Each structure stands twice: as structure tokens, then as C-alpha cells.
Automatic annotation (TrEMBL):
NCBIfam families: gatB, PRK05477.1-2, PRK05477.1-4, PRK05477.1-5. Its EC number is 6.3.5.-. The gene is gatB. This is Aspartyl/glutamyl-tRNA(Asn/Gln) amidotransferase subunit B. The keyword Ligase applies. The keyword Ligase applies. InterPro entries: Asn/Gln-tRNA_amidoTrfase_suB/E, Asn/Gln-tRNA_Trfase_suB/E_cat, Asn/Gln_amidotransferase, Asn/Gln_tRNA_amidoTrase-B-like, GatB, GatB_C_1, GatB_Yqey_C_2, Gln-tRNA_amidoTrfase_suB_CS. Belongs to the GatB/GatE family. GatB subfamily. Allows the formation of correctly charged Asn-tRNA(Asn) or Gln-tRNA(Gln) through the transamidation of misacylated Asp-tRNA(Asn) or Glu-tRNA(Gln) in organisms which lack either or both of asparaginyl-tRNA or glutaminyl-tRNA synthetases. The reaction takes place in the presence of glutamine and ATP through an activated phospho-Asp-tRNA(Asn) or phospho-Glu-tRNA(Gln). Keywords: ATP-binding, Ligase, Nucleotide-binding, Protein biosynthesis. It catalyses: L-aspartyl-tRNA(Asn) + L-glutamine + ATP + H2O = L-asparaginyl-tRNA(Asn) + L-glutamate + ADP + phosphate + 2 H(+); L-glutamyl-tRNA(Gln) + L-glutamine + ATP + H2O = L-glutaminyl-tRNA(Gln) + L-glutamate + ADP + phosphate + H(+).
Length: 481
């Protein structure tokens, strides 16, 4: 039997406010446990929450960024459940009247096709604390620093049909929230966490199958692996005559293991009711228009501009526009140099070096200005492409403040003197007389491949400094004469 996968996502995005959603406690990451939880976060008797206005603004910006409805009146509710890291015994969230209504996010797939993924809604809520299980000898510790941190939970329609689409959507969403500046996008610190709802059904069937929810996936890689594993598991169960149980599951990215956590709750299990301590939030026209006027250039618009302004390919423009720091780095490097070369270097040497050293482009030792200067020296034939890689490596290792200093210090300036190159080539041809005879005796159509040997010898003799174009031109003239 052929099976179709149906996927819906719930994404928790931590908003980049300095303080929590209902208190003045800090949201800074990395503090000592339980040093950033105040009386409001703990729900102590007599305290009253006050809504963080900046969290409201950030949620509205997200809605504007995905062309969604903004609900002018939205209400906070209490979601009641017991868990050790939920100090109040309830989570303040939104259910019936969320701040962001229906919207959409367009994604581009590996084959170049596009698809629009519907957003059901996005609501504001507070985060819970964190249970710590290591080093407690059979016990658990509780860190409440994260309790009360502002989140938007983004809920998609079940429009995704495979892991590739889910990852493409997650990456696009990451691009949107970081471009808007409402989230730092640092998934290793929990700034974005994905809950994946997966079901399978026979191909052609309209009715959805029973879904499971795999929670708290904090990387694109883990999300893809968890989806593939869960799809395979569900198909195996169904083909063996079993039934899928609606449940919450966990996936361990380090071990690749998945397991059942608990049966899946329904909304009525949480006994939602309007929070008596918080008034409805009313969004005025003036606030909406002010935020709309301050919106940055969104990834899709940036991609279109990169194609029209810089002549980039669709694929290159898509990658470069998908991450705000990378887009800014590229534009700074392209300014005053060559945009296509800047694109090639950012997507090539820069990306490889960042990945190898496990750092972000914000921490790159080679700045955009350094890269622009390097590209200028490639364009004016001061250095060749191969020498440029040596210069880049030296800049990366801190061996110079710019390309000119490295080129001068290491004597890497390209040889463009025709007489010097001719003399070098004459020595190469004399030392390889037999290969010259073979070349001249070969059919014309085979000579193109054979000339590569002589180019290699000439470049070796010049220690890579000879202009490759001039070497090819002079060699061909001398060999064919």
C-alpha cells in the first residue's frame, strides 16, 4: 500500500524582549539557576501580572510579516496543569482570541517548486521553567529562570507532506523571525523549539490518520530525523495490523532514539478560562500603522531584490536572503566589489570556514570589508583565485588587517609580466620536450585536455603566482606554432 504523510507544526518562538512577559525579571540566557525568577513569575500570593508592551509589538510584527489577520481584541487565558517546572500550576496563554489569526508562509523546495503553508494562528504565552536531571543522583532539579519568558506559539495547518517541506518551512520561519528582530533564532539555547504532529493515511484518502506529537525539537536536523523515524514507525504499525495511538513522543537527537512520553491531552483537559488578572488587549489602528511603517525588508522581497539588483541566481539569492546576518554580510562585501564573486565567496570559503569552526557569520574573523578588499584584488589581477584562498586563510588566522597587507607581507602578488611568463614557459617546454612532441602529434580535438599538463607545470614553476589566463594564452600560442 502507498502511504501519504500529513504534518502540522507548532513552533515556540522566544521573543527577544529584555524582560519577561508579565514581570520585570530579566530574560538573559545563561544566568545561575533560579536567579531570574521574581514573585510574579512564581505566582506568589498578592502579585499581579502586567503585560510587556514590547512582547505585544513583536507578536504584531510577526503577524504583519506573514500577511496575517491581527485580532484587534485578544484575551489571555489560564491553561491549568501540574508539572514541577510550572510554579503557578497554570500557564498564561491565549486560546479563543489569539493575537495573530490566519496567515501564510511561502516555501521553496529543493526542486525549485514553491508551496504556500497556511498558518492557523499564533498566540502569546509564557514559558515554563526547566527540569534538570543530570548530577542529581536519582532526583531532578528545577530552574525557574525561564518561567515567564515571552513566547509566540505558531500553529500551522496540516499542509506539510514530508520532512523536506517541514524543514524548508522551519528554515523560512527562522529567517522571518530573525529578520524581524523578534527572536535571536539560537535554537541551541531554546529560542526556537518545534513540536511535530505526524500522521499517515493511504494515498488518496481524505480523512486524516491518528496523529502523534513529537515535542521540543531544537534543530532542523533533529526535526527531519524525527519525522522520518515516526513516519516509518507508523507505517510499520499499520501494515502489521496495529493501530496508532494518539500520544506525545520524545526524540533524542544524540542517540537517534524515539519513545512514547504520555497519552495526548485534549484542550478540555486543561480547563482553560479567561485570566482574571489580565484585561483584554486592544490593538489600536495607530499602533498597527506605526509598526507597519517600521517593518524591515522581508526575506522574499530581499531575495527578489538580490536577483534584480545583483544578478544572482534564484538559488544563491534564496540562501543569502534567508538569514539576516548573512544577507547583511553579503551586501557589505558586494558594495564596492563584484556581487557575483561576493556571493560565491560567502557561500563558499566563508561558509565552509564558519562550519568548520562552528561559529556564526557574526563572529567571522574575516569581515565583510576584508572580503570586499580581497575581491577587488582578484578583479584587478593582483592575485589569482587560488592565491586568493591563501590570502583568505591568512586573514582568517589574523595574519593581516586586510588583503593588501597579506599580499605584500607574503609576496603573493600575481606575475603579469608577459616576458617573465614567456621565459618561465620556455623553460617548462624545454624540460618536457617529449610531452611537447606528443601534444603536437595529437589530433586537434585532444589537445585541449593535454594542455592542462603544461599549465600545471608552469603554475608550479611560478609557485602559483603567474596569471592563469596569460599562462594558457602564451602556452597555446607556443605549442601550436
Amino acid at each position: 500500500m502507498q502511504w501519504e504523510t500529513v504534518i502540522g507544526l507548532e513552533i515556540h518562538v522566544q521573543l527577544a524582549t529584555k524582560t519577561k512577559i508579565f514581570s520585570g525579571a530579566s530574560t538573559a540566557f545563561g544566568a545561575e539557576p533560579n536567579t531570574q525568577a521574581c514573585a510574579v513569575d512564581l505566582g506568589l500570593p498578592g502579585v499581579l501580572p502586567v503585560v510587556n508592551e514590547e512582547a505585544i509589538n513583536m507578536a504584531i510584527k510577526f503577524g504583519l510579516g506573514i500577511d496575517a489577520e491581527i485580532n484587534r481584541v485578544n484575551v489571555f487565558e489560564r491553561k491549568n496543569y501540574f508539572y514541577p517546572d510550572l510554579p503557578k500550576g497554570y500557564q498564561t496563554t491565549q486560546l479563543d482570541k489569539p493575537i495573530v489569526g490566519a496567515g501564510h508562509v511561502d516555501i521553496t523546495l529543493n526542486d525549485g517548486s514553491t508551496k504556500s503553508i497556511r498558518i492557523h494562528h499564533a498566540h502569546l504565552e509564557e514559558d515554563a521553567g526547566k527540569s534538570l536531571h543530570e548530577d542529581y543522583h536519582g532526583m531532578s532539579g528545577i530552574d525557574l529562570n525561564r518561567a515567564g519568558t515571552p513566547l509566540i506559539e505558531i500553529v500551522t495547518e496540516p499542509d506539510l507532506r514530508n520532512a523536506e517541506e517541514a524543514v524548508a518551512f522551519a528554515k523560512k520561519l527562522h529567517s522571518i523571525v530573525t529578520t524581524l528582530g523578534i527572536c535571536d533564532g539560537n535554537m541551541s539555547q531554546g529560542s526556537m523549539r518545534f513540536d511535530v504532529n505526524v500522521s499517515v493515511r493511504p494515498t488518496g484518502q481524505e480523512e486524516f490518520g491518528t496523529r502523534t506529537e513529537t515535542k521540543n525539537l531544537n534543530s532542523f536536523k533533529f526535526m527531519e530525523a524525527a519525522i522520518l523515524k515516526e513516519v516509518e514507525r507508523q507505517i510499520d504499525v499499520l501494515e502489521d495490523g496495529g493501530k496508532i495511538v494518539q500520544e506525545t513522543r520524545l526524540y533524542n537527537g544524540d542517540t537517534g532514539e524515539a519513545r512514547s512520553m504520555r497519552s495526548k491531552e485534549e484542550a478540555n483537559d486543561y480547563r482553560y478560562f479567561p485570566c482574571p488578572d489580565l484585561l483584554p488587549v486592544v490593538i489600536e489602528d495607530s499602533r498597527l500603522e506605526k509598526l507597519r511603517a517600521d517593518m524591515p525588508e522581508m526575506p522574499d522581497a530581499k531575495k527578489a531584490r538580490f536577483i534584480s539588483e545583483f544578478g544572482l541566481s534564484d538559488v544563491d539569492a534564496d540562501i543569502l536572503s534567508g538569514d539576516q546576518p548573512t544577507a547583511d554580510f553579503f551586501e557589505a562585501a558586494a558594495k564596492g566589489s563584484d556581487a557575483k564573486l561576493a556571493s560565491n565567496w560567502v557561500l563558499g570559503e566563508v561558509s565552509r570556514s564558519l562550519n568548520a569552526n562552528e561559529i556564526t557569520i557574526a563572529d567571522s574573523p574575516v569581515t565583510a570589508e576584508m572580503l570586499a578588499g580581497l575581491i577587488v584584488r582578484i578583479k584587478d589581477n593582483t592575485i589569482s583565485g587560488n592565491i586568493a584562498k591563501k590570502v583568505f586563510e591568512a586573514l582568517w588566522n589574523g595574519e593581516g588587517k586586510d588583503a593588501d597587507e597579506v599580499i605584500e607581507k607574503k609576496g603573493l602578488k600575481q606575475v603579469t609580466d608577459t616576458a617573465a611568463i614567456e621565459a618561465m614557459i620556455d623553460e617548462v617546454l624545454t624540460a618536457n620536450a617529449r610531452q611537447v612532441e606528443n601534444y603536437r602529434a595529437a589530433p586537434v580535438e585532444k589537445r585541449g585536455k593535454m594542455i592542462g599538463f603544461f599549465v600545471g607545470q608552469a603554475m608550479k614553476a611560478s609557485r602559483g603566482k603567474a596569471n592563469p589566463g596569460m599562462v594558457n594564452q602564451i602556452l597555446k600560442k607556443k605549442l601550436d606554432s
